[in-house]
Design a protein that fits this description.
Number of helices: 9
Structural class: mainly alpha
Strand content: under 5%
Largest sheet: none
Number of strands: 0
Amino acid sequence: MVGAACAVVALVSAAFFATRLLHVKFLQLIGAAAILWIAVGLFRDEPPLESSATHLSGFWKAIWFIVVADVTMSTDNILAVAAIAQGDFFLLLFGLGLSIPLVVFASGMLAKVMDNYPVIVYIGAALLGRVAGQMIMTDAFTVQTLRPSAALEYWAEAGGALSVVIAGLWVKARNARRQNSSRD
């Protein structure tokens, strides 16, 4: 519980600073690239990690492990909520208040639901791709140089969503080919 509470504080702090930093030129482009990478990564079929927590000795090491794991795994959440909030601190707190309990307390259940209904992974990845497209179009550099129209912003968001799903399908197909060739 202490680790989860520390992780929540770290996530809120990181999201607050991410919201402020997203107004810096090129930073939204970098954030969008990170979100696209994470979204495509949702399609990787990786074996579960060996329980590193069982090798920890001591209360503070366990707390540190939980905080670092939560912040690392929630990078997409932080960037997406910060991008959607667009500088509105109360919207940011609402988004994090809605998503953090799901991540912290319902992650096991969400993993089972995603295993049973893989379409949820596709929808989540497409949503992240859409947010990345929005971040690209609202970056200070993009706005200054391209002055994108509403139609171009829409197409960038749709293109982000579609490209993530296509890249994810390619990753899944490549993983399946590798698994089949390793069995032979």
